[in-house]
Amino acid sequence: MNTNSSFFVYTLPKSNSLGHYVKNKDIVCGLKKVIDTFEKNFAGYQCGNTQLEIFFKKDNEQELILAQQTISKMNIFLGLPVHKWENSGNEYIKTSIRWESSSKNILDILEFLKVNKNEVLPLFHFTLLQFYHYGTTVTENAQINYIIDSGKLFVDLYMILPYSSNEERMYQVIASLYKELPFNLNSKNFRRFGLNKNRRAFWRLDSETLQLLESYLENKSG
Description:
With 222 residues, the protein is an alpha+beta fold. The protein is built from 5 helices and 11 strands.
């Protein structure tokens, strides 16, 4: 591996479609902790619209009333929806409506839902998604989707760190994230990306690098 032109990459397996589950009953508290941790270690900037989607059954009278109130409030707060799907009668598929916003972030929406909790659908009827870049426009360190689905917070993380002569700094950043994030980074999800045998690709960490990485994580977990 040519360490002068390679990167340390953290990526989740394809079988993990939603990402790391944040085990915090207070979703806002958990989300703020994740965002603060990444902004502390990287320069952060938001990219893309926030998406919000609701799902409900029209044959449930109480649910339908709350859905109508939710739609009315979201139309005022976020603007008109960008997508509607009406259930044609299939009992297993719910009606869904989706909004997008470039001016409201995921925390704004969660605060709005909290203030209006008695007049809108419960959180498990919502899916919220917001995509973030971390780093600068020149050096991107991470791409992250913050996802709230079925009342739970997930973090879909792709992280890339330049592998340079200053290895100590890189390991310290990883160890800091490991200690501060409210979910566990898995050392098995780290790869090296760069040249090996004249081919540029992802490679599993060699045993020496993996052992060094795990030693930093163990020191920070205490």
